[in-house]
Amino acid sequence: MRYSPDMMGSLVYAGGMAVDEALAMVGTDGTVLGEELKRTGYEGTVQPGFLQPEAFVELHIEQGPIMDVENVKIGAVENLQGIHWQRVTIEGAANHAGTTPTALRADAGLAAAKVNVFLRQLVEKSGGVATMGTIRLEPNAINVIPSRAVFTVDLRNSDKAKLEADEKALAGYFNELEQSDHVKISTERLTEFDPVLFDQGIVSTIEQAAAARGLSCRRMTSGAGQDAQMLARICPTAMIFVPSIGGISHNPKEYTRDEDAVAGANVLLDVVKELAGGSECPV
Asked: CA-to-CA distance for 280 and 278, rounded, in angstroms?
């Protein structure tokens, strides 16, 4: 991801982030978003929010394996998981890997590994998901005990209370680990989005459109962040999923069959026609 947070454009459009704040964001390559938009000719000529949508329906691949495994053609997405990201830094002490007894070590790498195991055990109880997606050890030498571990934690759950409880439990575990492993732990908040409940009327309309076309359909939760979660702040919103073969996404092997994409587009068309027919304003 070059610029953070995710879905920045729709977040700004929905009023969740100031335009100036977004334009000042520095990318992973050191570039500034506003300057890059000017350079590439994508700066735009209107202010975010110039058009107030009557409703928003997003067609998307599932990005997961459920529909492919269950041979479901249409996903009527009724909610979206909350997403909490943080960067964690564990400070230990670098020492020789061969001469330092186990009992006298302050191993930041070991402490990070314990956190990863704790996260899996945590979400097995809560029903959420947790991922340590990046990790960097210092000094990163084969014969030196790591003095520092820097990693990210991605916690997700469709239940806000459970998501917050998991994060609280993780913070408590950090305190325990500092005492037991003789390390120092600090955290930095990266992203915090609450779970989103989509418009149940639109979800029902998606189900009806799928049934009318003879397409199998199931209600689903979006495990990934989507623009729809931002637009849900300002208008009735829902999503339509089509299958991802093998559940693969953000990868060159990502693939959705042509017939599945067409089926999703037809359901989207039917839903938009239904919504437009019930309102004087265009969707």
From this structure: 7
Q: pLDDT band for position 5 (50/70/90)? A: confident
pLDDT score of 282 more than 70: no
Q: Under 8 Å CB-to-CB from 65, ≥6 apart: which residues?
A: 244, 246, 247
From CA 230, how far away is CA 174, in angstroms rounded? 32
All residues at 6 or more sequence positions from 36 whose CB lies less than 8 Å from its CB, including other chains: 27
Rounded CA-CA distance 51/47 in Å is 9
How large is the C-alpha radius of gyration of the chain? Answer: 23
Q: Beta strand 148-157 with 74-80: parallel, antiparallel or unpaired? A: unpaired
- pLDDT tens digits along 169-224: 999 999 999 999 999 999 999 888 889 999 999 999 999 999 999 999 999 999 88
Q: 96-138, pLDDT tens digit by residue?
A: 999 999 999 999 999 999 999 999 999 999 999 999 999 999 9
> CA–CA separation, 206 vs 261, rounded Å?
15
pLDDT digits (tens, 9 = 90+) for 148-173: 999 999 999 999 999 999 999 999 99
DSSP string, 228-255: HHHHTTTS-EEEEEE--GGG--SSTT--
CA-CA-CA-CA torsion sign (166, 168, 174, 177): negative
Q: What is the pTM of this model?
A: 0.75
* 3-state secondary structure at position 153: strand
255 vs 242: CA distance, rounded Å:
11
The DSSP H or E segment spanning 115 is helix 108-126
CA distance 197 to 158: 9
> Strand runs (DSSP E) across 112-176, as ranges?
129-131, 135-138, 148-157
Residues linked to residue 257 through DSSP beta bridges, in sequence order:
none
